[in-house]
Design a protein that fits this description.
2 copies of one chain form a homodimer.
Chain A: H1 10-14, H2 24-45, H3 50-58, E1 63-64, H4 65-72, H5 76-88, E2 92-97, E3 100-108, H6 110-125, H7 134-149
Antiparallel strand pairs in A: 1-3, 2-3
Helix pairs in contact in A: 2-3, 4-5
The structure holds a DNA duplex (30 and 30 nucleotides).
Chain lengths: ~160, ~160
DNA sequence: CAATAATCATTCGTGCTCGAACGATAGGGT
DNA sequence: ACCCTATCGTTCGAGCACGAATGATTATTG
């Protein structure tokens, strides 16, 4: 269903590297897999791939390719690729970006806007991970934040 | 570093679909991204891609292609692809699987076994997500398990 | 102002992943 | 024995994602 499930390797990091508490890592992977699956299902429902739906989702307003890539969390070549597909289907158009002649501005067409509305509706229909109360969700968020903070993150500035 | 970071779309599922608690979904994605990054770094350190390292990791004993795919959480064509690369490098060999002439058995060579040992050593070196005490880890696991259990999982049987 | 460096989008090559279709073998029913 | 179905691994086509290199434009520096 999803673009590709990234070869979860739940057992890998969850095996010996986890110490005395097995099962945590697989759960993390499973959780993100659920989120991915939900998004991919909504994308498929409106006739898009997950990557394309991601682009459409982020195109609430016209932006340059670069900015779109930033929002999609991917590299420029990938943006070019995905936008190519959307443009072939008439869902977006590339135009000049005012104030910078080397950049291009991507904007949804009327069709694209309609599809985006459909996508948003689908996404809101049945969000996953609702099995927790508000207090539990807060605890979960706190724990995750702490786990990540005390771990070794990617250097904030290069 | 990773094979590809799957276009996280943290904002997507974390935006309106999350209700009154923003920031949970991005944290989940970030956590798995850390795990992926750690694994990919270890893979690169021993001269493998993440997918190849995943296969090598799972090849503790000789298995059929199908079983290997199951362990790697991916589809058969993918196993063929990855095993092809490993076989070209002399890290694995394909042989007949006793008792079933259409299946093949994949086994690590001596080189493959050596590389696997290196990989395991690297993986154990500095496992991520250690920033939590044992009690917090247990809580985290419990919460995740509950969130997933009460959500709508993939149908257990097709 | 001219030369250099930085940035933009693209193209190219490589790798990963999947679904569909294929030949080969295995197993069940008649 | 014979067919029919299921399974095994592979091949093929498509899409996603990245790093490196390119031409066009902008910004900076001398």
């Amino acid at each position: 269903m999803d673009t590709r499930d990234r070869g979860r390797r739940t057992a890998v990091s969850g095996g010996s590297a986890e110490g005395a508490l097995p099962g945590l890592t697989p759960l993390l992977y499973e959780a993100t897999a659920r989120l991915d699956a939900h998004f991919a299902a909504c994308a498929t429902a409106v006739g898009l791939t997950a990557a394309q739906a991601n682009a459409v989702y982020e195109l609430a307003d016209p932006v340059g390719m670069r900015e779109l890539g930033r929002r999609m969390c991917c590299e420029p070549p990938n943006v070019t690729f995905v936008v190519d597909r959307l443009e072939e289907r008439g869902l977006v158009v590339r135009g000049p970006l005012p104030g910078d002649r080397r950049a291009k501005q991507v904007a949804l067409t009327a069709d694209g806007l309609g599809l985006r509305a459909e996508l948003l509706a689908k996404l809101a229909e049945d969000p996953p991970l609702r099995g927790l109360g508000d207090a539990d969700r807060r605890t979960l968020r706190t724990l995750l934040a702490r786990a990540l903070a005390e771990s070794d993150p990617a250097p904030t500035d290069a």
